[in-house]
From TrEMBL:
GO terms for molecular function: ATP binding; protein serine/threonine kinase activity. Keywords: ATP-binding, Kinase, Nucleotide-binding, Serine/threonine-protein kinase, Transferase. This is non-specific serine/threonine protein kinase. It comes from Noccaea caerulescens. PROSITE patterns: PROTEIN_KINASE_DOM (PS50011).
Amino acid sequence: SIDSNLHNAPLRLPPLQSESESSARNKPEFRFISPIQAILMMPFASSDPLDNDSEPFVESDPTGRYGRYDELLGSGSVKKVYRAFDQEEGIEVAWNQVKLRCFVDDPAMIERLFSEVRLLKSLNNDNIIKLYKVWRDEKNSILNFITEICTSGNLREYRKKHRHVSVRALKKWSKQILKGLVYLHTHKPCIIHRDLNCSNVFVNGNIGQVKIGDLGLAAIVGENHIAHSVLGTPEFMAPELYNENYTETVDIYAYGLCVLELVSLEIPYSECDSIPKIVKRVSSGIKPEALDKVSDGEAKTFIMKCIGNPMARPSAAELLRDPFFDGIDDDDEQEENNDHI
């Protein structure tokens, strides 16, 4: 299958964290990630534009449409992300550069990379980070790709910054994540995200919009919807994921824990201080302690539906019809209620 070779030996790298996120949590967040994850981690940026009197671009794409600034938004082991500008649409974008020389001894990896990037470029949904353009710099052995940019960081940082948020707002964010999952899971072929958590859901805070990013671990599966590689962020990995035989319902489990984090303001299984302890609790079916801190009965019931037995978990489309979202419209501009979780 398309994910069978790439992820046999996933890398274990520390996540990129902002200063605010790092200081907000005493223990590190462990992640099992593949080279594709390191490559495709989606960026975010502040909304402050550059103000240069001279020609601002360091380089342009072959068509001249996209210009790259020198401002670095983030970097990983094989990738750097810069602020850039789309001169045709008049919008800021993110310019991603991947060092292909890192994979010079693995041509299959490079081919897999191009295949998945081409697929991601074909995705078009309001709640999925958009990939606009991809090209290869043969001379410098660099893969360049242009992605959408979000102004308010990831949802984990955003929620910590805004601690007093209405129930209605949390539901609206949660509903938008589900809409993104419906798109991925009903795509032909089906796409399983496999690493959904609040740190890779991104926010445009000025319009209350959230988008799923970090599709680097996504599995493209056939008609049986079954994948096998053990990948993801341990705190958000469904128990069956460790058994290497699972479907898109692992995303529903992770989604339920995202909702739990939004409601409780606590990363699931933060009571554990190591990966083995997390794996043991998850594999044993022990729920995160954060669940005991959820006082809202409706929210707790909804979360339990998501993290229950995989055969009993609703699909993303079914969850959109759950009573939890009654009266919630993503485009509703009515005043939000004053009830807070």
